[in-house]
Amino acid sequence: MTDEHEKHDQETKDLIIANVEKYGCHLAMFEATGHLPAFVYSIGLFKAYGHPEIICFGLDINLMATLINDAKAQIQAGKSFSAGERSVDFLKGFDVQFIEVNKAFASYLGYAGWFYGNFEFPVLQLVWPDKERHFPWDADFNAKWKFKQPLLDRNTDFWFYEERNVCAYTTKQALEGDPILFVYHNIDGDWQFHTSEEPQINDGKLVALQELVKLDPTLNKVYHLAYGWCAWRDSVDDNWEYEQFEFEEEE
User: Fold this and answer.
1) Which of 72, 141, 191, 231 has the smallest set of CB atoms within 10 Å of its CB?
2) What share of the chain is helix, strand, coil (3-state, %, to 5)?
3) Is 145 within 8 Å of 58 (Cβ atoms)?
4) What pLDDT, on the 0 to 100 scale, is given for residue 218?
5) What is the per-residue pLDDT for 234?
6) Which of 228, 164, 173, 219 is nearest to 200 (CA)?
7) What pLDDT score does 147 carry?
8) In 2-20, which positions are buried (b, 16+ CB within 10 angstroms) versus exposed (e)?
9) Contacts 24+ apart (CB under 8 A), 245-251
10) Contacts of 72-76 spanning 24+ positions with Cβ under 8 A
11) What is the pLDDT of residue 250?
12) Is residue 156 within 8 Å of 144, Cβ to Cβ?
């Protein structure tokens, strides 16, 4: 962690503590990237009110902040939300529904984990419907919006913002069981998973992404890898490191 990053991290932690003490919660807000949707989650509702934290994905970041603040106001007034509950009190003319967040998805809640010292606190996801009032689990939900809000109560075996059968580049060594140590997410959206930094083109294979994740579930941890970035590790037991990369142009 650079000095600048360390300073920003400490400032954020100080702000979280101050906001929880003053307002009852802090809102962690993350803008959308080219790959991932925006999302906002609360920190402090469980400490202040014994209520699950709330996370929301895929809408305008300020609207999501407003929705969670509206929920906090209702919680302060004695309301309690639970998984499976629908409410008309958030989006005019539309229901929203709460679902329970599986603890497998703790990576979305990093600062909340720091605040509580663990990830054992409960979390609800506020899920919104499409314009025809279909929810993501409905057969008629707008397919174009499928990856705007991941459903954090399911699919714990596959975290990527992709169809399971999307093609990924790898090598025969990976399919034979050698550890995948290098991952690239190309600018065009293609994924590469390799066992060495300089794989041989003659060893190349094209497989469904889910097949690689089945071979090594720890690959789920790079689901958030941005376009034009790579991740690497020394072994499957080590944490991933990240950096932006540039491909050499062919002459």
Assistant:
1) 141
2) 30, 25, 45
3) yes
4) 97
5) 97
6) 173
7) 96
8) eeeeeeeeeeeeeebeeeb
9) 245/184, 247/186
10) 72/24, 72/25, 72/42, 72/45, 75/45, 75/49, 75/51, 76/24, 76/49
11) 47
12) no
The strand pairing partners of 54, in sequence order, are 124
State both tokens at 39. 């999302």
pLDDT mean by block of 10 residues, the chain; 251 residues: 80 95 96 95 98 98 97 96 95 95 97 97 98 97 96 98 97 97 96 96 97 98 96 96 75 45
Residue 247 pLDDT: 60
The HSE-up count of residue 235 (CA atoms within 13 Å, CB side) is: 2
Round to whole Å and give the CA distance between 121 and 48: 12
Q: What's the CA gap between 149 and 224, in Å, rounded?
A: 14
What is the reported pLDDT for 34?
A: 86
CB contact at 8 A, 135 and 129? yes
Does residue 84 come out as left (phi exceeding 0), alpha (psi in the -120 to 50 range) or beta? left
On the CB side of 162, CA atoms within 13 Å amount to 21
- Strand 123-127 to 53-57 pairing: parallel
Task: Say how far apart CA 85 and CA 66 lie, in whole Å.
Answer: 19
| pTM confidence score | 0.92
203: left (phi over 0), alpha (psi -120 to 50) or beta: alpha
